[in-house]
Amino acid sequence: MTKPVRSLRRWIAGHPEDIVDVFVYVVVLNVAIQYLPQVISESFVQSLLPAVLLKVALEVVLWVKAAVLARLRDAVTRRGKAVFGVALWMVAVGSKLVVLWLIDIAFGGSVSLGGFLPVTALVLVLVAARSGVRRLLYGADAE
């Protein structure tokens, strides 16, 4: 077995929740493809890589959102609260646009998540499904 394969296997063994998240994202993404005409993937296999991309993008977004929320809570002035409130809004809106851009760059016309509203709904369902499955598998304190 080659070193990259061993490294990948070691990483997977150490991060089962991330693997479960990707499987959940694949299921949610394919349900969206089935029922929302604006969400398109040319094949099931082509929905696997967007699920991984969505996992990475949503992890980064959740990390940035937590950092901005912490700064918002720590802000003591009105100006500070306003600045971090606007920053939180920008993360919420901008993250959807970044996801659309990343999907377009990575997959071109073979995968489409629709526009801003469908991707927003998709992200909300992805986060809710991830949370639900983690609670089911790991208990109420999973998040």
What does it look like?
Keywords: Membrane, Transmembrane, Transmembrane helix. With 143 residues, this protein is mainly alpha-helical. It has one domain. The protein contains five helices and two strands. A two-stranded antiparallel sheet has the order 1-2. Helix 2 crosses helix 3, helix 2 packs across helix 5 and helix 4 packs across helix 5. The longest helix is centred in the middle third of the chain and has 30 residues. It is globular. The protein starts with a helix and ends in a 5-residue tail after the last helix.
Tell me about the largest β-sheet. 2 strands, antiparallel
- Helix-residue proportion: over 70%
For the secondary structure, the number of strands is 2
Which structural class matches the secondary elements?
mainly alpha
Total count of helical runs of at least 4 residues: 5
Alpha-carbon distance between the termini?
35 Å
